[in-house]
Each structure stands twice: as C-alpha cells, then as structure tokens.
TrEMBL record:
Gene (UniProt): rsmI
Taxon lineage: Bacteria, Bacillati, Actinomycetota, Actinomycetes, Kitasatosporales
The species this protein was found in: Streptomyces humidus
Keywords annotated in UniProt: Cytoplasm, Methyltransferase, rRNA processing, S-adenosyl-L-methionine, Transferase
Biological role stated in the UniProt entry: Catalyzes the 2'-O-methylation of the ribose of cytidine 1402 (C1402) in 16S rRNA.
Protein name: Ribosomal RNA small subunit methyltransferase I
EC numbers for this chain: 2.1.1.198
Length: 290
C-alpha cells in the first residue's frame, strides 16, 4: 500500500477556545490567532472579544463559519488550504466539531489531502465529567437531545441500558423537560450531575438523583448546561421488581411500541420469562397504575 502524495501545502488548525474563563486559553491559541492567513470563526464578534482579551491582533482575513453557512463556505476554505493558506478554525467555546461547526471542513480537507492539526483546549465534556463525581473510566457523549418530546424519549430509550456514563449538552430553557424525561426513562433514582456555567463566575454543579434534579430545574435555570448521567447498573434479573418492569413497559409504550412488543422487549433485556413481565403489567393495570 503506497502513501498518497501530498497535493496541498496548506494547514487546517482546529483550536479550542475557553468555555468560560479566558485565562484558560492555551498559549498556542494566541500564536495561531496572530499568524493564521484565514480565521474561520463561528461568531466574529465573540472572536473579536477573545483577541482583545488575549492582546492579539490577527494579521489574516476573518470570515464567519457557522451552521447556516457551513456548507457553502467549506469549499472556499478548502481552496484556500489547497493554495497553501494556514486556516484557523475556532468556535464560540470548546473544540470545533464537538457539537459545533467543523466536521464538514475537516472531512473536506482530508479528502483533498490537506494536513489537519489541533490546538488542544478546554472541553465542557471532559470538565463536566471530571466534576460530576460519577464514573469516568468509560463514557459516551450524546450531544443535544431532540427538541420534540416524542423524539427525545425515543433517543433516551435507545441508551436506557447503556453501562457507560452519558454526557449531554442542553439549553437552559429545555433542561427541566429533559431531566424529567431522563427520570422517566432511566428511573428517578439514577444519579446525575447538572454542570452550569463551567469555569465562569457563577459555576455550579448540582448532583443528585434525576427525579430531584428535575424538580430543582422546574423553577428555571440559566447559563450553559452540561448534564452527566451515570450508566445503567449491572444488576441481575432477580433484582428487577415488578414496579421496575412495569415502568420499562410504560416507557416503551409511550415511545410508540404496542404493549405486547414492549413486554417481550423488557423480558428479553431483563432475562425473564415473558409471562413474568406480563403478570406484573396485568397486576399494575388492575391496581390502576397502568
């Protein structure tokens, strides 16, 4: 297998920017801002504030690169790279491509054999994990959940039995609905942490069961939010009581499954006979709980 000859001499630099405290900016960030031929910024106004705070005067051209123009601007930036430019990509906070613009440009640059490197910087995902007090040896990042309630429940149901710690971003005005949905799907007792305004003046980490966190968020929460949820516990079938079996069936029904299908699925994931789950559902129905 032979290596493909490099056809471009430019360089794409993905630079992490502070998620709160500007003092967290890595020293290399200032160097890259000062020396780049082109700076592609998610918000040029926020970029201006950042360069002023760092005492940097960019020599290169500044262009906007955000969700609305990402598709159209990517080819232009790739041509700059192919022609030898050093292009710096920055987003509003954290690393480009992580729930932010950047993936399209990286993929297009790689396709044209342009070298891509990074200036490591602050990450809300890793910071929230470290502060959460929850297991961090294995985790998965789920980004933002869908805005529509039904789609949100379906997405959560997909990872209800995920053993790894889960990390989500969320808008403050949707946090109460999201935590309530998590409590419904994962169980109100599942441990979680809501990390708000990380590294900023009013940083707060609220830890507790999902049910309690949902009640707390109902009063309203402000700021940038990262939610960390512990993974599903490793427990045997004998530890799943009737109430838990009924709850899992209810979650599946609310997500659109027929009761017969939901009972079969819950029995399979719990390692129980379908009859046992069926009996629990019938008892709950007779008691007016389902």
């Amino acid at each position: 297998m032979t290596a493909t000859p490099r056809t471009a001499s430019g360089l794409l630099v993905l630079a992490g920017t502070p998620i709160g405290d500007v003092a967290d900016a890595p020293p290399r960030l200032a160097d890259e801002l000062a020396g780049a031929d082109v700076i592609a910024a998610e918000d040029t106004r926020r970029l201006r504030r950042l360069t002023q705070a760092l005492g940097v005067t960019p020599k290169g051209r500044v262009v906007s690169y955000f969700e609305g123009n990402e598709s159209a601007r990517t080819p232009e930036l790739v041509e700059e790279l192919v022609n030898g430019a050093r292009v710096l990509l920055v987003t509003d906070a954290g690393m480009p491509s992580v729930s932010d613009p950047g993936y399209r440009l990286v993929a297009a640059a790689v396709e044209r054999d342009v070298r891509v490197t990074a200036v490591p910087g602050p990450s809300a995902v890793l910071t929230a994990l470290a502060l959460s007090g929850l297991p961090v040896d294995r985790f998965c990042f789920e980004g933002f959940l869908p805005r529509k309630a039904g789609e949100r429940l379906s997405r959560l149901r997909e990872v209800a039995q995920e053993r790894r710690t889960l990390v989500y971003f969320e808008a403050p005005h949707r946090l109460d609905d999201t935590l309530a949905a998590m409590a419904e799907v994962f169980g109100a007792d599942r441990r979680a942490a809501v990390c708000r305004e990380l590294t900023k003046t009013y940083e707060e980490v609220r830890r507790g069961p999902l049910g309690e966190l949902a009640e707390w968020a109902a009063a309203g929460v402000r700021g940038e939010i990262t939610v960390v949820v512990t993974g599903a516990p490793e427990r045997g079938a004998e530890e799943l009581d009737a109430a838990e079996l009924v709850r899992r069936v209810r979650v599946r029904e609310e997500a659109g499954e027929r009761r017969k299908e939901a009972i079969a699925a819950v029995a399979t994931e719990a390692g129980l006979p379908k009859r046992e789950v069926f009996d629990a559902v019938v008892a709950a129905k007779n008691a007016g709980e389902l």
